[in-house]
C-alpha cells in the first residue's frame, strides 16, 4: 500500500464492502441519503467522520470518501 491512498466511491443504489489493512490508519467521510453504515473498529468523530485508533500515528493512511443515495456501506479491517 502507498503512504497515502485515496478511495472515492459514488453510488446510487449499491452494496459496498471494503477491507482495509489494520496496519494503516484510515479515515472515512460519508455523504449519503438513506444509507446504512457499518464501520467496525472505527470511532465516530465530532465532525461526522470515522477514524481508526491508529490514524494519527500511522505512516500509511487511507482516506475513504463514500457518497451514495440508498446504499449499504461496510468497511472492515484485516
Structure description:
It is a single chain. The protein is mainly β and 78 residues long. The protein has no helices and six strands. The chain has one domain (4-77). Strands 1, 2, 3, 4, 5 and 6 form a six-stranded mixed sheet that branches. It starts with a strand and ends with a strand.
Features:
78 residues, 0% helix
Topology readout:
Blueprint (H helix, E strand, L loop, with lengths): L3 E17 L4 E8 L3 E3 L4 E2 L5 E2 L9 E17 L1
Parallel strand pairs: 1-6, 2-6, 3-6
Antiparallel strand pairs: 2-5, 4-5
Number of domains: 1
Tally of helical segments: 0
Write down the secondary-structure element order: EEEEEE
Query: Low-confidence segments, ≥5 residues, pLDDT <50?
Result: none
Distance between the termini: 14 Å
The percentage helix is under 10%
Task: Assess the beta-strand content as a share of residues.
Answer: over 45%
Q: What about the largest sheet?
A: 6 strands, mixed
Cα-atom radius of gyration: 12 Å
Q: Given the helix and strand composition, which structural class is it? A: mainly beta
> How many runs of DSSP E, i.e. beta strands?
6
The averaged pLDDT comes out at 91
Characterize the overall form: globular
Amino acid at each position: 500500500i502507498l503512504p497515502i491512498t485515496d478511495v472515492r466511491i459514488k453510488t446510487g443504489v449499491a452494496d459496498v464492502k471494503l477491507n482495509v489493512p489494520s496496519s494503516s490508519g484510515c479515515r472515512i467521510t460519508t455523504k449519503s441519503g438513506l444509507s446504512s453504515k457499518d464501520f467496525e473498529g472505527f470511532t465516530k468523530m465530532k465532525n461526522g467522520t470515522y477514524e481508526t485508533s491508529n490514524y494519527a500515528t500511522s505512516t500509511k493512511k487511507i482516506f475513504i470518501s463514500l457518497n451514495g443515495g440508498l446504499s449499504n456501506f461496510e468497511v472492515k479491517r484485516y
